[in-house]
Design goal:
The complex is a heterodimer of chains A (290) and B (242). Chain A is mostly helical and 290 residues long. Chain A has twelve helices and no strands. Chain A is 75% helix and 0% strand. The longest helix of chain A is centred in the middle third of the chain and has 33 residues, at 93-125. Chain A starts with a helix and ends in a 6-residue tail after the last helix. In chain A, 42% of the residues are buried. With 242 residues, chain B is of the alpha/beta class. Chain B folds into two domains: 1-70 and 147-242, P-loop containing nucleotide triphosphate hydrolases (Rossmann fold, 3-Layer(aba) Sandwich), CATH 3.40.50.300; 85-145, no CATH class. Helix content of chain B is 31%, strand content 24%. The longest helix of chain B has 16 residues, at 159-174. Chain B is globular and about 45 Å long. The chains are: A mainly alpha (290), B alpha/beta (242). The A-B interface holds A 1, 5-6, 9, 13, 16-17, 20-21, 78-82, 84-85, 87-91, 268-273, 275 and B 14-17, 50, 53-60, 73-74, 76-78, 80, 83-89, 97-98, 100-103, 139, 142-143, 145.
């Protein structure tokens, strides 16, 4: 049995699990309805692909983390937790982590891709400004820019998915996973912006806003959309640093996958060893004294 | 069959915080036999089983768990106490998934071994508790591991189904596998186990064949022998500090 075949088996089971769960189909349809409703309720469709992307950006900063967290937070708990059995097969923790991640990421691509494609079709069939397939100069609307926007959206979703998987691996119980998932969701949706606001608050503080935007997944995603989609069409850019934003997203992806792998491996660590480390960490956490 | 051990548990301790669940426990598992681990609730049976399969690591320092059987892709098969399977998949698909990690594991044959061939196309959530347990037993034998470890395989089953599970265990041993099984079904243990290890407060306190234990306690049944050999108090033993 090759490692590649084992990887395919794990990834395929995850994908099959999603495909056979009707609520995920409802999620895809619901997302398509919501996104279509948002763009048809404004003048974005008549404006073309880039105005539509602008209209969708803010809602997607909320909706994408929601979908990713829903898709990932129970990946290793409840009936999805057969780690103790899998450990008796020639399946490494790395293989399991990557297999589960890839299987669920493929599902995420479909769940996000279908609604975005639906919106793209709506733009295509709505009379409005003329769009060019190739962006030869700034100020031109193009489906290529919408594809870029959709790709960035899916990448953002995949990064949050890795964090949701980490939550699922850290939590042994579904209820704990739900609580941790809520924290991840709030952290992704609001954490970055709160960080930026807190750093901008003090008088005389000189903060590189472009760098700060790369720190959280959603502001990095927003920065990339501004620079590589909206900025291209409007010739108005320089809000964010695309390279830093890519590094930021890649960093969060790595954090998510590494945490997932370590947490899964830690499930078989000696309980006394784990308890000792938990106590060590607890003693070093800041305590509130009244 | 020889008494050559397929797995040695040597001086192993496992603690959960301040509670020492296994205390310098040693257990030799001879090849080709059915070994039953019996003991009261909370005595450490499941922790011992989980330690044997590598689901829990022993305390650092002393003690070891050493598999000494043949080198195969899956040396130890395992049925955990609370085995769960994914909804939406049929019994056959479930076994096919696990079988994809080892060569030559045919789901149909595995289902026939436990008598579940007629439920091959039934989704796991539509299986009865007993059928699901049989599926879990079949999963434990995927890849024909030399050592099969079953944690309370007859838990919650009716007498007929429990007997069927233990018949399956006996059939595994006939095919050459060594079986380590924890159970509260003392009558079935007496009938099917070659060797019984009695665990109490994290230690093996008695060990021998059902017949030897009966003789030692001068009791007509293994159940009565265990009652005699162990503390007959009905108070629950609480391990560790309270």
């Amino acid at each position: 049995m090759s490692r590649a075949a084992a990887f395919v088996a794990i990834a395929r089971r995850e994908l099959d699990t999603i495909v056979r769960t009707r609520s995920y189909l409802a999620l895809t349809v619901g997302l398509a309805v919501i996104l279509s409703g948002i763009v048809t309720g404004s003048d974005a469709l008549q404006g073309g692909y880039v105005p539509t992307a602008v209209d969708l950006l803010l809602p997607l900063e909320l909706l994408v983390p929601t979908v990713s967290v829903v898709l990932g937070y129970r990946a290793f708990t409840g009936e999805n937790d057969d780690l103790s059995i899998l450990r008796t097969y020639p399946v490494s923790t790395v293989l399991l982590t990557v297999g589960v991640f890839v299987g669920r990421a493929i599902a995420l691509v479909v769940i996000l891709g279908v609604p975005l494609a639906t919106v793209a079709v709506l733009v295509a069939v709505t009379p409005g400004v003329e769009s060019a397939v190739f962006v030869t100069h700034s100020g031109v609307d193009s489906p290529a820019l919408f594809v870029r926007f959709a790709t960035l959206t899916v990448v953002f979703g995949v990064v949050v998915l890795s964090l949701a998987l980490a939550v699922a691996a850290l939590a042994r119980r579904s209820r704990t996973a739900l609580a941790l998932a809520l924290l991840v969701f709030l952290g992704v949706v609001a954490g970055g912006d709160l960080l930026v606001l807190s750093r901008l608050g003090g008088p005389g503080t000189t903060v590189d806003l472009a760098s700060l935007m790369a720190v959280s997944p959603n502001s990095a995603y927003r920065g990339l959309v501004f620079e590589t989609v909206i900025g291209v069409a409007t010739a108005d850019s320089g809000f964010a640093n695309p390279a830093l934003n890519v590094v930021g997203l890649a960093g969060w992806l790595a954090v998510g996958l590494l945490t997932t792998g370590i947490a899964l491996a830690a499930r078989s660590w000696n309980p006394q060893f784990v308890a000792t480390w938990k106590a060590w960490l607890r003693n070093r956490l800041p305590t509130t004294e009244n | 069959m020889t008494d050559r051990p397929i797995l040695e548990v040597d001086d192993v301790s496992v603690s959960f915080g301040p509670v020492e669940v296994l205390s310098e426990l040693s257990l030799s598992i001879p090849e080709g036999k059915v070994i039953a681990v019996v003991g009261p609730n909370g005595s450490g049976k499941t922790t011992l089983i989980r330690t044997v399969v590598g689901d829990v690591r022993p305390d650092v320092g002393v003690g070891s768990v050493t598999y000494q059987g043949p080198s195969v892709p899956r040396p130890i098969g395992y049925l955990p106490q609370d085995a769960t399977f994914r909804s939406g998949f049929t019994a056959e698909e479930t076994l096919a998934f696990y079988g994809s990690f080892v060569d030559g594991a045919e789901p149909t044959e595995l289902l026939e071994r436990v008598g579940l061939e007629d439920a091959a196309d039934r989704r796991v959530e539509a299986l009865s508790g007993g059928m699901r347990q049989l599926l879990a037993v079949a999963q434990a034998t995927v890849g024909d591991p030399p050592l099969v470890v079953l944690d309370e395989p007859a838990s919650g089953l009716d007498p007929m189904m429990s007997t069927h599970v233990f018949e399956t265990v006996a059939a595994m041993a006939e095919r050459g596998a060594t079986v380590l099984v924890s159970s509260h079904e003392i009558d079935l243990v007496e009938e099917y186990a070659d060797d019984v290890a009695v665990i109490a407060s994290g230690e093996i306190v008695e060990r021998g064949s059902p017949r030897a234990l009966r003789q030692q306690a001068d009791a007509p049944t293994l159940r009565e022998a265990l009652m005699t050999l162990s503390d007959s108090s009905r108070r629950v033993t609480v391990v560790g500090e309270t």
